[in-house]
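FIELD: query
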Amino acid sequence: MTRLLNLPGLHRDEVSVMALIEICRQLTRSLDVNHVIGAIIEQTVTAISAADAAALFLYDQETERLLMRAASGFDADALGKVRLRPWESMTGTVFSSQRSAIFATAEKIDEGMGSMSEENRSWYSLAISHLQHPRSVMAAPVKTVERCWGVIVVDNFSAPRNFSSRDLNLLEALASQAAVALENADLYEREKSHAQRLAELNRQLLQVTDVHDHMTRAVLEGRDLEALAGWLAEALGCSVLVQDQFLNLLAIAGDFSQTGRPGRAADYQLADTADLRPTLERMRTEKRPLDIPRGGGSMHRIGMAIAGGQEVLGFLVVLEAGSLEQVQLMTVETAAMAFALALLRERAVTETEQRLTGELLWSLISADPDEAVRHRAAQMGVDLKRRYAVMLVAADQPSGESGRDGSELVRRRLRGAAERTLAQHAPGSLVTMDSDNLVSLVAITDGRGNSTAPTRLGQALQAMLARDVPESTFSIAIGRVSEDPSQFRGSYQEALRALRYNRLNGERSQVIAYEALGTARLILESGDRGQLMHVAREALGPVLDYDRKHSTELVKTLFAFLREGQKPAATAKRLYIHVNTLNYRLQRIEELLGGPLSDWDRWLDVQLALKIVELLGQ
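FIELD: result
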């Protein structure tokens, strides 16, 4: 990860994830409410690059007002006199709706502040008297499942850009950490008065804090998910599974053999089955530890969504969890946040890798790669001495998922399936996405010169897609194998032609190798489209003209007659017409062509003309 963070293409937002991790570590160091609140606000401005000022408003149940408890960048004395009703101004709106928001323009900000009382507006104006009018404002509720504590508000006055959705995600993750910190601190304050429970309370809180501190430090040190799962399994004394948002298994920890259960720990992972779907949906919604239905077995499992803001990043599963105490359930909740930070970190790294890989791949297949491109490939560990072929994967039909989010989910599943398949069967391959297709430069040979048939790789990927993206079907087109990088562009063009040929045929779930297209390749590779259509019109012109003039389907009839091997009964069935109707059409075609279709030369010309019309779309 250190190597990637030092790359010149790394974005500021990706670095902010690591800053957020540091904030989370700071929050576990104290149960003093004032110290926790101060740390939250001071570090918020550091974590979010566009932030000039930040404030935390907490809801006071006695006065029924949102009161400022900490601020950075504002005149704190003046802002401390602002007392907002739960629906008042942008802060009150976010508190009452419990939904994060960005107010990106001066008009939106003025509209949001329109509900402020004159007194509150006066104090707010004084609080920003040393600043300009805010250019952008975002706010996130500080809430747990059972309670909304308040709102974190971040203002931008002079930064060269407005807040982005990524900034809002960071603020939401910080607000989630703040809510837990406030809840723990509040619990500590309330229970401190009960002397008989103080020692036990300290033990519980210290245990949770210790696990969170260890796991957060492990994230900061770049430890992987297996290491984090190991920490949690040791703290709970149970086996632990970590799965991604698509339920792929990411990590396993703990001594499962001590349970006396048959099989392996992996056999008890979450699956997208009818009996588990309601529980999975509850996990995504409630974001707290929940009992998982036991089904036919007696294994007691607890599961919890791993969430970053509003997005579910994965799932945490604890096996044989029947003996867990409340403090251990709190530990699971705390650990889920550490896993969220680790997954956000890995996503930032992965997105950078994918971006750099995509840029390199397009440089390789869009033109004959120059020395600079070859040097960049060598730096990224791509061996251009190996043999490659371009593979395209395209959806046969629109996804069954609805909306933009559903479409993006299918794309991510598609890319994940391709990366896993090629990592297993063709390591060293490059994968990226364009607007419509998945594009891959597939390594056909390994470092020892051993080859894998491209169509076998396509078939392996089809099997993976059928499992991971069952709601969609895909076709895979493969260009010819390239012996040299100068041939990559040609292989890409061939894959595009093969994909187009498959779409013209209306086939689904196909693996099409360009070199297997036969005579169709001659037509697809021809650069003289006009000459080809002239040949087609010489053979089929009267029939084409007759169809156009009379709105008939004689050309369609010829296509069906050809595909059914000139068998009248099968052709009539394909066209949903009577055989007598078919015979009439064939007779009319022969009259237009000036001779019988049984004439070998004429029939060969007709077949070639039909293929040209089909491939060139006329």
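FIELD: remark
DSSP finds 22 helices and 16 strands in the chain.
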